[in-house]
Amino acid sequence: MKKVIYLSFFLFLLVPYYSSVKAQASIDLIVFTPLPAVDFAAFAFADIPGGNLRIFEIRISPAGERVVLQGVIEWKKDANSSFQQLFRFETYAFLARSLTNQDLGRGDIRIKTNDSNNQLAEENLRKGKPSGEYRISLTLKSPEGLTLGSDSEVLSFLNPSQTISIRSPEANSNQDIGSVILQWDNVIGAGSYKILANIRRNESQSLEEALTSGTPIIDRVDVGSLTVTNLRRHFTREPLPGQEVVVQVIAVIDGPGGGEELYSDIINFYIGNNSSPETEALRQRMVSVFSALANALGSDFLDMLRSGEIDISTIRIVDDTGRTISFEELQQIMIYLQSNPDAIIDVDFMER
Predict the structure, then answer these.
(1) N or C: at which end does the chain have fewer Cβ atoms within 10 angstroms?
(2) Is residue 165 within 8 Å of 178, Cβ to Cβ?
């Protein structure tokens, strides 16, 4: 009975002590800005969380209490990724004080356990410098495992001066299937650009979900150094009138380890019907040009063209190299032939 009384008395004294420590102890993570341009090995915690440069400060109060520090470092490589754990560590108990990342793993702040994602670490090393975003989460504990406080910060190594903006089409606009002109800003250092597009099935999908779900209608197609292109050239399947399309441009920045990828905002647009002003203008030009060739083409073709039975948006014309001529090029050809009908030397019409 005495043992039970002593134990209860001991716990009675102990609980206020821990409650006091928990109430008073605090941890504050402070990132030094502007962030230095350093290589990955100097920053991102290979064997121990230290490093050669001061990246952040950890302020722990009150000083002098024995505490344990746990940390998790996560990496988000680009705007389309989520955070993944890169490194985690836990120290042995030490006397609380303010310290920097340089102190971790040194002196009395010894590392008890640590674990790293080797695959992600190697991917970082190949890039040659920190890139994307790093989230550092710290938890302060008592030697007995009681949580005393926590803090986290996100370190961004994205260059805010380097952005890529889509100039056309405008968001929520209606576009002719035959002429969806995608144009974007040039990015300094970009060796090439890639295009990703997909159908948005319903409004409950976010633009990001729509872009990455299912099979894209344009799957990261490399268009080289162009900053303008007709999306119809790249569709693996054509969207239907009334459907909503989402598109994103990716700039590939040359650099070590394959370089960086810079993502534009995702914009959406709608596919209009075949009676858009652009399509009707092209139809009229084609009727004007082909009317002079009625003997070669036949009246049925012209009648179908005039009535709209021939869907202008589905016409596909290739040149002698097999390259598909764009909607804009077809428009220019028709304008030229309207003004220069003698440029047509011969016509062969093959009905299929």
Answers:
(1) C
(2) no
